[in-house]
Amino acid sequence: MLQRYFSLVQNGTTVRTEVIAGLSSFLATMYIIVVNPTILSQSGMPFGGVLTATVLLSFFCSLMMGLYARNPLLVAPGMGLNAFFTFAVVKGMGVAWQTALGAVFWAGIIFFILSIFNVRTYIVQAIPKPLRYAISSGIGLFITLIGLTNAKFIVNNPATLVGIGNLKDPILLTFLLGLVITAILVVKKVQGGIVIGIVLTTLSAIPVGRWWGDASAVNFGQATLVNWSGLWAAPDFSLLFQLDLTGSLTLALWPVIFAFAFTDLFDSLSTFVGVAEAANLYDENGDPRNIRQSLLTDAVATTMAGLLGTSPGTAYIESAVGIEQGGRTGLTAVVAAFLFLPFMFLSPLLSVIPSIATAPALILVGAFMMKPITKIDWTRMDEAIPCLLALVLIPFSYSITQGIIFGFLSWTILKTAAGKAKEISFTLWMIDIFAVMSLVWGH
C-alpha cells in the first residue's frame, strides 16, 4: 500500500530509508517545539499554549504535506516570522497578540486564494534558473551558519563582527568531535549516518556536565541551561481560537498582513525551489514536484497558525537533512509528523538533545545544498552579480527573504541595463514591485 501511494520504487527509495529520513528531518527541526514558545511568550502569550499550538501545527501540516503534496518536507512555525510577530508587531507597534494572530490568519487566507488560482505556481516559474541555483546554495550557507552559531563555533566579535569561539571550551570541543564523527559517517555513506551522529554527539556531551560543571545543569551552547525537569507535561489548549479577526482588519494593520504574507511566501518558495534543485525533485515540466499542492499546504499552515495560536507556518529547509539521508517521498514527512505529536505531552525530553548535537547535521546539509552552484555561468555578469547577491545576502543578512529580494531586483535592473528586458517575465516585474513595497514597509 505504501509503495503504491508514495511510488517508493519509482523514486528509488524504501520504507526503511523514508523512516530514517523522517527521523533525521525531525531531529533537525524539533528545536522549534521549544524555541518558538520561547520567542512568542515574550509577546504575552502563555508558553505552554504556544508549545501545544506549535506541536499541533507541525503535526497536521507536515502530515498534509506528506499525504496530499507527497513531498518530503516538514512544516512548522517559521523562524524569523515568530520574531517579527513578537518584536516588530506586538512589542514594536503595540498590537495585542490576539490581533496579531488575526493578521496571521488573514495572511493565510491571502495565501490560500493565491494558491487556489495557481498564482504562486506562476511565481515559482518566473524565478530565473540561475537565481534558483543561487538561492539553493545561499540557503546551504545559511544552514551552515546556523549550525556554526548554534555550536558557538562562530561568535560575535566587536572588532571583526564575527570570530571563532574559544577552542579550549569543552562544549565546543565536543561539537567538533561530533562534527568529525558525523562527517566520517556521511563520507562512508553509512545508512542513517546523520541520526547516528546526533545520538553519538548527545552521548559525548553527557561527560561535559560531570567533568566541567554541575551534573544536573549543563550549558550546551546558545546560552541555554539544560535541566532535567521530568517526563510528563500536560498540553495547554488555552490559545485555540483566541485570534481577533475583526480588529486585525483595520487599515493600520494592512502592512502587517502584507509583511506576514510576503515574507512567508518567499520563505516557502525558496524552500521548495532550493530543496528541489539540490535533490532533483522536479516534475516533467522542470518545476518543483507537486508545487501547487505544496504551496496550498503552506497556505493552510499559515491560516491554521492563527487559529491554533502561533506565528505563520512554513516549509522547513531543515527537511534537507532527511532528504540527504535518502528521503524522496511524502512518507518522510508523514513519519516526522507523527514524531512531533508525542512531544505535546513529553516536551521535557527535548532537553536531552543539545544544540551541539544537531549542529553538525546542519553544517553537513549545507554542503549538500551547495551542489547547484556549479550550474551558474559566472562569466555572464548580468546574471553572476544577482546570483552573488542572493547567495551571500541570505546568510549575511540572516534572512532568506532579503537575499531573494535583492537577487530579484538586481536581476531586473542589470538585465534591463544590458538591453535584455525581454527576458524578464511580467510575473517577475510584479514580484519586483511587491519586493520594493516590502522593503519600504519593512523599514
TrEMBL record:
Main location group:
membrane
A GO cellular component annotated for this chain's UniProt record is:
plasma membrane
- Membrane topology per the record? Multi-pass membrane protein
Question: Which parts pass through the membrane?
Answer: 20-39, 45-66, 73-90, 96-119, 131-151, 171-187, 194-212, 239-262, 329-346, 385-414, 426-442
Question: What superkingdom does the record give?
Answer: Bacteria
Q: Where in the cell is it found?
A: Cell membrane
One function term, GO molecular function aspect: purine nucleobase transmembrane transporter activity
* Keywords for this protein: Cell membrane, Membrane, Transmembrane, Transmembrane helix, Transport
Q: Name one Pfam family in it.
A: Xan_ur_permease
InterPro entries in alphabetical order: Azg-like, Azg-like_bact_archaea, NCS2
The Swiss-Prot or TrEMBL record describes its family as follows: Belongs to the nucleobase:cation symporter-2 (NCS2) (TC 2.A.40) family. Azg-like subfamily.
What name appears for this protein in its UniProt entry? NCS2 family permease
